[in-house]
């Protein structure tokens, strides 16, 4: 298969894929991969296969194609191709929740000295790295990466990247419980879709609606949350987007739990868990198990709640997800307090505070914890964040956290 024929077949596959005839598109692209002698064409078709498998939640296949793409990039001996292939490798590992590997491959991308094309990819690299740091609950570094990605998006006038970063920032602020910002950023993403997204994939609309649903639920606006989640789920079903379907089912379950409708929540959690397990989203599984635990606690089935916690703890420890561990210690504390088991209660109180210290989840001004309840936060240029009211009240001549870190221990 020659260069022109390869190009025609790739375009044919794209047309089929955009028309939701995914299986036919995959067959066309696989045929190109088998028969094409054009390395640049093979590289491009591998990119199509990586994107398609990512959207279907077939992350192990995505990783397999990303590895093949790196070999093709080396054959082409072009730093731009190599940067793109390492970015796809980073993304594949991010989807499989291999966050340390993601960070390592992102750093490889950033260290490559390519041309303008590579520099334009740096925003996507920063976004992927930020998502990985967020998965590890390293909040300052996550925020640093998201802000870098946003600067790249603005400098390159890349509205799609800006949209994706806004969704990640929504997720970031939802995790540390600044729900005003958790809603602001996906709303901004939805505006970008409305203003610029005529030719974009509908996944951008679905993604922004899902993150809005999460924020609305956290704010107690359950009807709004349900509307956004239904909109997101409709698009996810139309496009066979299994990862988003799993997230929407989790959000539906959380909404029903917030309404104390546990009987409706449980089957939604089960369906979400089934897809999360199938696609390998271990971070999502932790969230599902947290929701299931809270349902058992509502029903006062404390031993069943502890069983769910045990499964979630194993996953959180395996991933290095510190925020998940903190939440689990918090739930254990409540359970053992109810059971009157003082020794176990004390163990989890100690572990909870160790997690808070490790993640620096406290305000460097007032000393109170961050992420315990809904609070307006403000980040300084160093990406350390504080209660907004503390910054407004006390002001600062620099970051108190950075000042503490720079103080060297003296000799007694």
From TrEMBL:
Postsynaptic protein required for clustering of nicotinic acetylcholine receptors (nAChRs) at the neuromuscular junction. It may link the receptor to the underlying postsynaptic cytoskeleton, possibly by direct association with actin or spectrin. Belongs to the RAPsyn family. Its main location: cytoplasm. GO terms for biological process: positive regulation of neuromuscular synaptic transmission; synaptic transmission, cholinergic. The keyword Oxidoreductase does not apply. Keywords: Cell membrane, Cytoplasm, Cytoskeleton, Lipoprotein, Membrane, Metal-binding, Myristate, Phosphoprotein, Postsynaptic cell membrane, Repeat, Synapse, TPR repeat, Zinc, Zinc-finger. This is 43 kDa receptor-associated protein of the synapse. GO terms for cellular component: cytoplasm; cytoskeleton; neuromuscular junction; postsynaptic membrane. TPR repeats lie at residues 123-156. It is a peripheral membrane protein. SMART domains: RING, TPR. SUPFAM superfamilies: RING/U-box, TPR-like. The gene is Rapsn. One of its GO terms (molecular function) is acetylcholine receptor binding. It comes from Burhinus bistriatus. Residues 363-403 form the RING-type domain. It is found in: Cytoplasm, Cytoskeleton; Postsynaptic cell membrane.
């Amino acid at each position: 298969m020659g260069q022109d024929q390869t190009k025609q077949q790739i375009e044919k596959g794209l047309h089929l894929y955009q028309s939701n005839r995914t299986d036919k598109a995959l067959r066309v692209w696989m045929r190109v991969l088998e028969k094409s002698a054009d390395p640049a064409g093979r590289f491009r078709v591998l990119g199509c296969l990586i994107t398609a498998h990512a959207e279907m939640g077939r992350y192990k296949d995505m990783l397999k194609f990303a590895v093949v793409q790196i070999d093709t990039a080396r054959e082409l001996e072009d730093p731009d191709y190599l940067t793109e292939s390492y970015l796809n490798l980073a993304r594949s590992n991010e989807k499989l929740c291999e966050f340390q590997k993601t960070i390592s491959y992102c750093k490889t991308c950033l260290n490559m000295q390519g041309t303008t094309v590579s520099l334009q990819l740096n925003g996507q690299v920063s976004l992927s790295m930020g998502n990985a740091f967020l998965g590890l609950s390293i909040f300052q570094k996550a925020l640093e990466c998201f802000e870098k990605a946003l600067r790249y998006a603005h400098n390159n006038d890349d509205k799609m990247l800006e949209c994706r970063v806004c969704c990640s920032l929504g997720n970031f602020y939802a995790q540390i419980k600044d729900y005003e910002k958790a809603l602001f950023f996906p709303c901004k993403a939805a505006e970008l879709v409305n203003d610029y997204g005529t030719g974009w994939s509908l996944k951008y609309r679905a993604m922004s609606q899902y993150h809005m649903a999460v924020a609305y639920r956290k704010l107690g606006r359950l009807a709004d949350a349900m509307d956004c989640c239904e909109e997101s789920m409709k698009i996810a079903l139309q496009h066979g987007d299994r990862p988003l379907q799993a997230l929407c089912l989790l959000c539906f379950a959380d909404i029903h739990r917030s309404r104390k409708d546990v009987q409706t929540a449980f089957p939604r959690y089960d369906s979400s868990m089934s897809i999360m397990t199938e696609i390998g989203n271990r971070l999502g599984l932790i969230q599902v198990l947290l929701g299931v635990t809270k349902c058992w606690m509502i029903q006062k089935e404390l031993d069943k709640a502890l069983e769910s916690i045990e499964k979630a703890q194993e996953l959180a420890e395996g991933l290095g997800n510190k925020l998940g561990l903190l939440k689990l210690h918090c739930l254990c504390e409540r359970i053992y307090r109810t059971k009157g088991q003082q020794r176990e209660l004390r163990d989890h109180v100690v572990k909870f505070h160790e997690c808070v210290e490790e993640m620096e989840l406290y305000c460097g001004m007032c000393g109170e914890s961050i992420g315990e309840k809904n609070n307006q936060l403000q980040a300084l240029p160093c990406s350390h964040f504080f209660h907004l009211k503390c910054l407004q009240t006390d002001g600062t001549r620099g970051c108190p956290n950075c000042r503490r870190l720079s103080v060297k221990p003296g000799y007694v």
